[in-house]
């Protein structure tokens, strides 16, 4: 029984669960997105004194804080109690491609240690990438009016045309990063 719980849920279970959540958001007049959580936290911390973007009644968005808390607790429970011995199954060509870029990925690891391990934080190049990447993500999220999860899950399910454009742009950006920029960075 426990082995069934530890295996990933099939699409025909996870998909309808996401649909139920999105229908409930729609019925209660809420929209889903991770960037709105960050906006609420920044507003609570006083960012409204720095930018008018953060000037809103954050108390009406406290449900966002429960979402963040649930994501943190759920991530902890999943990583500590629901992990199985199977590694992430990547195509061998992808593993070879990562290894050719100097990203040491093996079939027995969950994430490449030289990118996500604690030792990576000792390299100044890692901090430069984090800061530049953070600025790009923050700018893109603000410019697009939401994050990838908000547009791809909430916006598309509400048939919003701007969300379709945003999701297409996110995918194009991801493909450019994967096939053009990342090889340039690591070559």
Description:
The chain has 187 residues and is mainly alpha-helical. It contains nine helices and no strands. Helix 3 (34-44) packs across helix 4 and helix 8 (148-157) runs antiparallel to helix 9. The chain has helices at 2-6, 11-27, 34-44, 62-81, 92-100, 113-116, 124-144, 148-157, 161-186. It has a domain at 1-83. The chain is 66% helix and 0% strand.
Total of DSSP H or I helical runs spanning 4+ residues? 9
Helix content: 55-70%
Class by SSE composition: mainly alpha
Reported for the largest beta sheet, the result is: none
Determine the oligomeric state from the structure: single chain
Query: What is the arithmetic mean of pLDDT?
Result: 82
Helix and strand sequence:
HHHHHHHHH
Proportion of β residues?
under 5%
- How would you sum up the global shape? globular
Total beta strand runs:
0
The radius of gyration over CA amounts to 19 Å
Describe the structure concisely for a colleague.
The protein is built from nine helices and no strands. It has 187 residues and is mainly alpha-helical. The chain has a domain at 1-83.
Outline the fold blueprint.
Blueprint: H1 2-6, H2 11-27, H3 34-44, H4 62-81, H5 92-100, H6 113-116, H7 124-144, H8 148-157, H9 161-186
Helix pairs in contact: 3-4, 8-9
């Amino acid at each position: 029984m426990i082995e069934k719980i530890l295996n990933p849920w099939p699409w025909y279970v996870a998909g309808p669960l996401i649909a139920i959540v999105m229908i409930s958001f729609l019925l209660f007049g809420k929209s889903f997105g991770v960037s709105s959580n960050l906006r609420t936290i920044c507003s609570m911390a006083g960012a409204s004194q720095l930018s008018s973007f953060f000037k809103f009644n954050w108390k009406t968005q406290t449900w966002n804080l429960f979402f963040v808390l649930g994501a943190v607790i759920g991530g902890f429970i999943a990583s500590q109690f629901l992990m199985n011995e199977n590694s992430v199954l990547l195509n061998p060509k992808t593993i070879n491609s990562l290894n050719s870029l100097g990203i040491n990925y093996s079939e027995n690891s969950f994430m490449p240690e030289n990118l996500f391990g604690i030792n990576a934080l000792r390299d100044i190049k890692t901090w430069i990438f984090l800061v530049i990447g953070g600025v790009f993500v923050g700018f893109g999220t603000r410019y697009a009016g939401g994050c990838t999860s908000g547009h791809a899950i909430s916006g598309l399910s509400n048939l919003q045309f701007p969300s379709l454009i945003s999701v297409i742009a996110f995918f194009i950006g991801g493909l450019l990063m994967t096939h053009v920029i990342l090889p340039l960075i690591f070559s």
